[in-house]
Design brief:
The structure holds two protein chains of two kinds.
Chain A: E1 4-6, H1 11-20, E2 24-31, E3 34-39, E4 65-74, E5 77-82, E6 90-95, H2 97-100, H3 103-110, H4 117-124, E7 126-131, E8 157-161, E9 167-171, H5 174-182, E10 187-188, H6 208-216, H7 225-230, H8 238-242, E11 249-255, E12 259-266, H9 287-306, H10 316-320, H11 327-333
Parallel strand pairs in A: 2-6, 6-7, 7-8
Antiparallel strand pairs in A: 1-9, 1-10, 2-3, 4-5, 4-12, 8-9, 11-12
Chain B: E1 9-20, E2 23-30, H1 33-38, E3 46-51, E4 55-60, E5 71-76, H2 80-86, E6 93-100, E7 113-119, H3 123-134, E8 143-149, H4 158-166, E9 171-176, E10 188-189, H5 192-199, E11 206-211, H6 214-226, E12 234-237, E13 253-254, E14 257-258, H7 259-262, E15 265-267, H8 268-273
Parallel strand pairs in B: 7-8, 7-11, 8-9, 9-10, 11-12
Antiparallel strand pairs in B: 1-2, 1-6, 2-5, 3-4, 3-6, 12-15, 13-14
Helix pairs in contact in B: 5-6
Classes of the chains: A alpha+beta, B alpha/beta.
The complex binds iron/sulfur cluster (2 copies) and FE2/S2 (inorganic) cluster.
One iron/sulfur cluster binds near residues 233, 235, 236, 238 and 323 of chain A.
Chain lengths: ~325, ~280
């Protein structure tokens, strides 16, 4: 049931009002011929014909790089200053239902006993405006991981495109309702005829229960099959950077020994130095062991430890992989 | 007060001890006076130590919680951060975050005999437990320490080893690997697991704590099994690369076990149940 209509002619008003209030409006735009999430100031920049943005919008809650502290080393000690996140209203327009479902996974990690406020403050001020999918490609497999274009989880507003290019708006959360109220000038009464949603076909040869049981059985951990299926991986890490649930990062100092910043930077479990000990020993020496870690993280650690989805089936890792390593093929193998 | 979980406390290096080639200890005190009083930890916990401009490195807290007002860390110069730390002098400032992780359940060991087995740079975490137990000596039965290093020069805490050797309520057995002895060497020559087997501490009502290089631990666990120790009575502390220390950065896991959050202290039984991700 749609609560309101967002007319395409009113989108510009919404973009301007959010920006005018000091907020950020993030939407899919064309950049180097790719559709990516970026800050927009004008509705004309927004792309509507796309399947998924190439990047996940996780970078607006968990930036690629961010300063956590500044230091200067003085003669008689160190001057250390904490950075605090300024919570700024951030609207992500045009998220897809699969990636909307990933926020609770990231939150589970960033609030596991210790609260990472760099993440939580950003997520708390994030408004996820999902536009349901009227297009899909062969890499989409949300329905195989129990999601679909109809999933509402993680969305604050859930939008259906109408035949005339407007949006029927359903407010899912209190945050979503407050958002509609705050910008009521842009959301009007009315209705329209929704375009048909496109359901990616469920991959029949995949059984998540079987995948899960297989991973839980520690006797299978050293199976040759890992090496066989993932040998071609070159460890570039691209799959982790585009993935909406990958959360690994490094903490490094940048600057000189006299002044600089301490930063959290995205990192990837696919890199050879990721787990390398100072002694030279590396628990994940071979690339297939690193790939196994990523798969375990998605289909064992996230669901078993954090009761959340490690993979939302967005297919980004499949589209971006330079050697065409397809995560669903591994899921199929473990469904036998 | 900041809620920034990545913000270290500032500490002053109050003293530096050269332990062995490239191995040194820092005695650290918090700059913040209130924290100096209130800081508390449990034996086995670790911290992240910063050399500003270079980054952070993870070591255990090598001092005992029964000694208040300071913490000690011991590290080997082996990378960028430890290299930078090695260049610091008495009076210099560095960073510390912690304490993190779980701890040795020392309170559960009351009335038991204790055997400590360490190799090389594996002694620092065990040292914290040893001093913790020696400071509460009357609560425990026999205490045996088996410690070995590659060469005589590589033995850390030489003064303390002498002190433990002089005490009549501690049985200390020191060893160096074959070829690592000097003419004056009075201890054993041999590998730690073999020396342990010869020393044959009795397993009954006894808890064993071991830390050292992975290969040593592997054979120490076998030796303990031969001596009749159950896997539940053997404790070790795992080391893995860490960056955040608080379960976020995703690199310290052994299979589904996050060493920074759920470790680093485990019984041998727990270690055997883990995924083979070592
Ligand atoms: S693992 Fe691949 S398909 Fe799954 S959520 Fe991550 S990028 Fe999307
Ligand atoms: S994108 Fe492909 S090649 Fe690159 S790390 Fe991921 S699986 Fe390996
Ligand atoms: S050290 Fe970062 S998750 Fe354990």
């Amino acid at each position: 049931m749609a609560d309101r209509i967002l007319k395409k002619d009113n989108l510009g008003k919404l973009v301007a009002s959010v920006n005018g209030n000091g907020g950020r409006f993030i939407a899919p735009v064309l950049d180097a011929r790719q559709v990516v999430f970026k800050d927009v100031t004008k509705a004309e920049e927004i792309v509507t014909e796309y399947i998924l943005a190439r990047n996940s919008y996780k970078e607006y809650v968990f930036p690629q790089t961010e300063v956590v502290a500044d230091f200067t080393v003085e003669k008689h000690g160190v001057d250390l200053k904490s950075r605090e996140v300024e919570a700024r209203e951030t609207v992500v327009f045009g998220a897809r239902p699969c990636e909307a479902a990933s926020l609770s996974s990231l939150r589970a990690i960033f609030t596991w006993d210790y609260i990472d406020e760099f993440y939580t403050k950003r997520e708390d001020s994030l408004v996820v405006v999902t536009v349901a999918c009227t297009k899909a490609d062969d890499a989409c497999f949300c329905t195989t991981v129990d999601l679909s274009p109809e999933s509402r989880a993680g969305s604050d507003l859930y939008l259906l495109e109408t035949e005339s290019g407007d949006y029927m708006v359903e407010a899912i959360t209190d945050k979503g309702r407050a958002f509609v109220e705050k910008y009521k000038g842009a959301f009007t009464e009315g209705s329209g005829k929704a375009k048909t949603l496109v359901m990616p076909e469920k991959i029949g040869t995949i059984d998540l229960e079987k995948v899960s049981a297989r991973l839980k059985d520690k006797n299978h951990y050293d199976d040759q099959v890992w090496a066989r299926l993932t040998r071609k991986c070159i460890g570039c890490g691209a799959c982790t950077f585009v993935c909406p649930t990958c959360h690994c990062f490094d903490i490094t100092d940048e600057g000189t020994q006299f002044a600089g910043e301490r930063r959290k930077n995205w990192d990837a479990c696919q890199f050879d130095t990721f787990t390398l000990h100072a002694s030279g020993h590396n628990p994940r020496h071979y690339q297939h062991q690193r790939w196994r870690n990523r798969f375990m993280c998605k289909f064992n650690y996230y669901p078993e430890k954090f009761a959340s989805k490690g993979c939302v089936g967005c297919g980004r890792c499949i589209r971006v992989c330079p050697v065409r390593l397809d995560i669903t093929e591994v899921m199929e193998e473990f469904s036998r | 007060m900041s809620n920034n979980i990545y913000l270290p406390h500032l500490v002053t290096i109050e003293d530096i001890y050269e332990e062995a080639p490239d191995v040194r200890s820092f005695r650290l005190v918090f700059k913040d006076k209130a924290l100096r009083e209130s800081f508390d930890f449990k034996t086995g916990q670790f911290g992240l130590y910063s050399a500003f401009g270079l980054g952070e490195s993870t070591f255990c807290i090598a001092s005992a919680p029964t000694r208040k007002g300071y913490i000690q860390c011991t590290f080997r110069k082996s990378g960028r951060v430890t290299g930078g730390l090695s260049e610091l002098s008495i009076g210099d400032t560095m960073g510390f975050r912690g304490p993190y992780g779980n701890f040795f359940p020392v309170d559960e060991w009351k009335g038991k005999n204790l055997v400590f087995i360490a190799g090389g740079i594996g002694l620092p975490p065990v040292r914290s437990v040893i001093w913790n137990c020696l400071d509460r000596r009357e609560e425990f039965g026999d205490i045996t320490v088996v410690y070995g290093a590659r060469t005589v020069a590589d033995l850390v805490y030489k003064n303390e080893l002498q002190h433990w050797g002089d005490r009549n309520d501690v049985r200390l057995i020191q060893a160096v690997d074959p070829g690592g002895q000097t003419e004056e060497w009075q201890g054993k020559v041999g590998f730690v697991p073999t020396v342990l087997e010869e020393a044959a501490p009795k397993a009954e009502n006894t808890v064993a704590v071991t830390c050292g290089p992975p290969i040593m631990i592997k054979f120490v666990l076998k030796a303990l099994e031969k001596l009749g120790f159950s896997d539940e009575a053997v404790y070790t502390t795992l080391e893995n690369k860490m960056k955040c220390g608080v379960g976020k950065c995703g690199r310290c896991n052994v299979g589904d076990v996050y060493v920074c959050k759920e470790g680093p202290v485990y019984t041998a039984a727990e270690v055997k149940r883990m995924y083979n991700d070592f």
